[in-house]
Amino acid sequence: MSLEATLQSAADAGQLLKSSLENIQALLSASDNPLYRNSIEELAQAGQWDELNDRFFQTLKFGTGGLRGRTVAKIVTSVERGSAAEDQRPEYPCVGTNAMNFYNVGRATRGLVAYIKGYRAAAGLTGKPSVVFSHDTRHFSPEFAKRCAQIAVENGADVYLFDGCRATPEMSFAVRHLRADAGVMLTASHNPAHDNGYKVNYSDGAGIVEPHATGIIKEVNAIVDEAYLPLPEDQQGQLTLIGEEIDEIYLKRVETMMLQPELLKDEKAKELKIVYTALHGAGGVLVPVLLKRLNFNFLTVPEQDVRDGRFPTVKSPNPENAPALKMAVDLANKEGANIVIGTDPDCDRMGVGVRNAQGEMVLLTGNQTGSLMGWYRLKTMFDLGILNDENKKNAVFLKTFVTSPMQDTIAAKFGVQCVNTLTGFKWISAKLAKYEAALPAEILAKYRDLPAEESRAARLQYSKFLVFGGEESYGYMGDDFSRDKDGNGAVVMFAELAAYAASRGLTVVELLDEVYCDVGYFLEVNQSKVFEGASGAAQIAKLADSYAANPPTEVDGSAVVKVRDFRKDVIHDEEGELISKEKMLFVDLADGRSFAVRPSGTEPKIKYYMFGRQVPAAGQKLSANELAAAKQKVSGSLSSMWSWLEKDIDSRLA
User: Fold this and answer.
1) DSSP state of 616
2) Which of 51-65, 456-470, 503-517 is least confident?
3) Using the 8-state DSSP alphabet, how is residue 163 labeled?
4) CA atoms within 13 A on the CB side of 534
5) Closest Cα to residue 187, out of 207, 203, 166?
6) Would you list the DSSP string of 353-393?
7) Considering the chain, what percentage of its residues have pLDDT values greater than 70?
8) Does the structure show a pLDDT above 80 at 651?
9) pLDDT above 80 for 100
10) Model pLDDT for residues 481-497, shown as the tens digit of each residue
11) What's the CA gap between 524 and 613, in Å, rounded?
């Protein structure tokens, strides 16, 4: 029986989804690459219909963040494996319309260049479009970046290609510094090793928002084949390799994020010892350079300095998860280090561990880390006179709705506005673009090249100055020269915070408790339910729809007092700006607890964010005993809420 007949027979029997059959037929008719047919044939002959459905139930959608999906299949075919050993990366990426492979990154690049050309023409701009390409250490990331660069050049765009792996925030910085039209990062951030992605930032260096998002998506999704005719040579773009010169300019800006370099003259602060791990990723390029230049006492985890897309020493290269930092913690215990810091493969996220007064290593959550860094930067900027009663009205704290309300409280205590955005740093960066656009024309013309102090002074006088930006998922920002969350800058900010605590004879845990006593105890617990593949996507959609159609009226014994449905309600932020629609529901309870639920935009999961708090009476502080009691009570209440929510999830899916 021919392959076509076998596939049709499986579809007739309900083993192969109709959409899978159509996408397989479309791919085979659009390309004569033998790798595609041979892989599909091998899986069909083995009766691996679930695998074929996962690979082909949809064409990998180019969303507002770009692409993300498997680049190494669950079941690797012999032709994909090629000459590679079992424990090595396959020779070829996963074949499928729903996978990260040369077919999909090629479509994305052609669509992106087409959109930029159209946009520039409509705006009356002359000259060729330009795009920055960068990549992390993931499987096929370097190969994807080189292929994308070639496609962009042959389609008439000038290309700046980094000469090796770099962090996502440096790609963002390069877009701004080089005045490029867009930047692309080949990464799946902190996802498991089998994934990769294609992340697009626009000319402001930030993740794409409207009107660019819809325009790019339309162009990319209109391309269904991988064949194209390169433009005549005189119409093609130029390829420029970039590296150390951009590194140096970027490094100098990141160094300015340390507010009190003199801290490290203090004897107690000098004794602070840091263990840093890049988790086999791009953070290893610049983080050690930064720590050395700023005179921090640090060492790295040698086994995890190795740049390897298998991430062989961890189950998942995600610094949010304790197991990822285990080797760093073990080294810290061996060497007597106080602090452990880890960054993810593209170095836009940072996770930390800190030693408490009992000598135990404690991992902080993204909310705790962000709250502490934001508190320290606010306090220090007032102490140094950067902020004062006159200009604080032009200072701003940016965070996402699902990030700890402790940060709203800290900002209010200092008299600084806190503005909440939707999930994703592109929304925080969209605020920064608005603040930048408000600057006088003569400053705006040279803004990207201004030294740090002049840039800050201009924003404080004419617009809004970012004190700190962050999200609960371990992403932080301390300035606006890059328009993405920045693991390099986060390491600098956290190391300084730890040095400040040490200079006062405190552990970071003791400093956090000090802040809790002042503003109240806040606890956030994040959980998620994973649903993979075609059937999983349907379950996630069903759950999300059920909350919108039937929001709860009572949760864990407490009445629901408010529901905010971001999908349909009209919601404005603290500046009066209308919030875009998103599949997210926020539920507030009578007892002060709340939770939010939203499908992940980058992983096959639906996320739950739970919030609890106990704050002191107005003008009061929590005593040490009250804080200890609050920790126990609030923690128990969120555990109870999750038990209730899990049962509710089961009933909604039944």
Assistant:
1) P
2) 51-65
3) S
4) 19
5) 166
6) EEE-TTS-EEEPPHHHHHHHHHHHHHHHHHHTTSS-TTTGG
7) 100
8) yes
9) yes
10) 999 999 999 999 999 99
11) 9
CB count within 10 Å of CB 385 equals 7
Q: For residue 34, which phi and psi values (nearest 5 degrees)?
A: -60, -25
With tokens 């083995």, the residue in question is 46
Q: Is the pLDDT of residue 601 over 80?
A: no
Query: Tokens 């690049």, residue?
Result: 109
Sign of CA dihedral 328, 330, 335, 339: positive
Q: Which two tokens stand for residue 548?
A: 């919108």
C-alpha distances (whole Å) from 220 to each of 63, 172, 604 are 10, 21, 22
| Each residue's pLDDT tens digit, 3-44 | 999 999 999 999 999 999 999 999 999 888 999 999 999 999
DSSP codes joined into one string, 574-606: TTSPBPPP-S-EEEEETTS-EEEEEE-SSSSEE
CA distance 450 to 446: 6
DSSP 8-state class, residue 59 = P
CB count, 10 Å around CB of 578? 9
Residue 550: closest CA among 589, 585, 601, 592: 585
Q: E strand or H helix at 223, and its extent?
A: none
Whether 189 is a known active-site residue: answer: yes
Separation between Cα atoms, residue 475 and residue 42, nearest integer Å: 42
> How many angstroms separate the CA atoms of 141 and 191, rounded?
14
d(CA 136, CA 444): 32
d(C-alpha 654, C-alpha 652), whole Å: 6
3-state secondary structure of 11: helix
Average pLDDT, the chain: 96
Q: Which residue has the tokens 């679930």?
A: 50
| DSSP 3-state percent helix, strand, coil across the chain (nearest 5) | 45, 20, 35
The residue-averaged pLDDT of 69-96 equals 96
User: The tokens 């004794």 sit on which residue?
Assistant: 271
Per-residue pLDDT tens digits for 297-320:
999 999 999 999 999 999 999 999
Residue of 189, 429, 463, 594 marked active site: 189
At residue 602, does pLDDT exceed 80?
no
Do 398 and 431 contact (CB within 8 A), yes or no?
yes
Query: Across the strands, what pairs with 526?
Result: 609
Q: Parallel, antiparallel, or unpaired: how do β-strands 195-202 and 182-186 relate?
A: antiparallel
Question: How many residues in total does the chain contain?
Answer: 654
Q: With a threshold of 0.85, does the pTM exceed it?
A: yes
Beta bridge partners of residue 614, listed in sequence order: 521
322 has pLDDT over 90: yes
Q: Rounded to an integer, what distance in angstroms lies between the CA atom of residue 154 and that of residue 158?
A: 9
